[in-house]
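job 3f2a | input accepted
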Amino acid sequence: MLLTPGGVNLIEFFLIDETKYAAEIGPKILKYYETFFNIPFPLPKQDMIAIPDFSAGAMENWGLITYREVALLHNPQMDSASRRIYVATVVAHELAHQWFGDLVTMKWWDDLWLNEGFASYIETIGAAHVEPSASILERFCLDNTYDTFDLDSLQTSHPISATVKHPDEINEIFDRISYGKGASIIRMMNHFMTEEAFVEGVSNYLNAYKYDNAEQDDLWSFLTDAAHAKGTLDSDLTVKEIMDTWTLQMGYPVLHVKTDLDQKTLEVSQERYLSVDPDMKVRDDHDYQWWVPITFDFAGGDFNKTNNDYWLRPGQESLKIDLEQVPNHEAIIVNVQQTGYYRVNYDLENWQKIIEALETKPTSINRINKGQIFNDLFSLAKVGLVPYNLTMESTKYLLVETDYIPWASGLIGLGYVKSMFSRTGGYGLLKKYLSNEMVQPYRSLGFNMQKSDSIDDQSLRELIVSWMCNIGYDDCQRQSEDLFRAWMQSSNPDQDNPIDPGVRGSVYCQAIKDGDEQEWNFLWQRLQRTSSANERNNIYKGLSCTQEVWILQRYLDMTLDPGSPIRKQDGSSVISRIAKNPLGRYLTWNWLRNQWVDVSTYFDTAISSAVGRIIKSVTKDFNTPFELQELQAFYEEHQNELGTAKRTTLNSIEMVKANVQWMKKYYNDILDWLKLNVQDDF
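job 3f2a | predicted structure (682 res):
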């Protein structure tokens, strides 16, 4: 350990400069929340501290918030813009907890989501205040809703307000349902009530229960009073009646929308969306129905009205809406700015109009709704509600798109297809289609940040470079190898890194994949010498990409060695990254089963979610009956030892079942489409 004359750890001393960003934005967010909640921060000061090895991302201890280094420290020379935004978001999340969680605390764990869901929503408002150019509010669904949709569409999901009777159940509900769904339905409520009524109700609730405990019905009461006073909710309706349908039952609806432009009407009905084949549905006698706020606009509209004039009520067979204000022949878009927590499926004619509008006048549809369209199309195709031909045709429009949000959403959908294709004979055609789609933004954005780049441009570059390198695009491979070689030849590689921070993870991965032991050892040395938490994450990713099986095996073993440079907090992430490597997939699965006692003991299944994350990441793209049998056998053998990972393992089994069915039903459909749309050089 290096020490200053005063006995201070020299590395920690150097990290002091990396606290400047959090120290600058923290007081601004805190002051903003005082105005937003209309409640002064009650403590004399607020300290924030980074801990080198910390199992949680951060913890909202009142007056002394603790963070992982990567969540608090920011080095402008070594971190990308997206990492800076991540720090802003985590700081905003923990400061929101000073009101939701600390000033007012839930009565019991059943309402954990009151803490985490609210903090996850309010964080976007706080972070957007200090980073107004980062599109944080517009990225909400990308960051909070889409992955939550995937989990909440499983039959093994759980209600957001979950009954807790055992300590394992407490840790299990620190998941995307409490955080992501909680944030998404609160955002929905903010929009159907209007923000003015929402903020007033929240402020009154916090003032009434400060230094006390509360439950969700207490919040509903104050929100109802505010909405009635502002006239934004009918007097015969309560927030409790609406929100109980979203918090006391799991899942969410898909709206089936039929447009009749001759009669100028819109007909809407609902059913629960499940991401499994109908033949795989288990018996569930519960009648899943929701209070659904209906908003809509048309291609060319302003997409600004997010408070609804219409409700689709539980038990209502369908709802007919007059379309007199919609121009003839324009595409209809339901769920303005995707503020409602639901999917939308249209009749074929309207889907085709939407795709035509995207291709011929892409700016005529709100950017959040363009993201929604892709997320809905791929998810609906996954369960046979729309044909994959339609979904794949929609992606052609990306050739004329330059916006990060629809690109990110489209690549989430294509990412699932890629994971299913990656070990099949059709993967070559898919790779060629993807490279043809992405070559234009790849060329226009380039490898290195420009002074004129917006944060969205930087994010899109990171995304496109990552994908192009991953699918083996020649220029991406060459540039990565050249940059990495220049770095290795530097006289002082720990200080002089020529690689743009935004693409370092991708460049490291590509160079290690194409290199040998020499490149791997060089990067391993950088891991041991860097003081940057974010750079460690980039290096972890790069090291996992080697094609040397023995090095991968050694790397896996190091995750269980307390004396290795891999911190315990990062172990599950390293294992997950190795599993993403095609060579590392089965290696990791076999290692996990062979080393189960060591893995479960080291990461402690009783108190940590790390084991669940490992199981999910290792098995998420299993898609053969044999792999499913292996996962089920693993669960049967270890179900009494899984602890907090039990629910996650059941989720994984259901996901793999869906993957197996997908391969049987849809693989050939997409392969046939690719054969028609991609020139095969084979």
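job 3f2a | The chain is about 55% helix and 10% strand.
job 3f2a | closed
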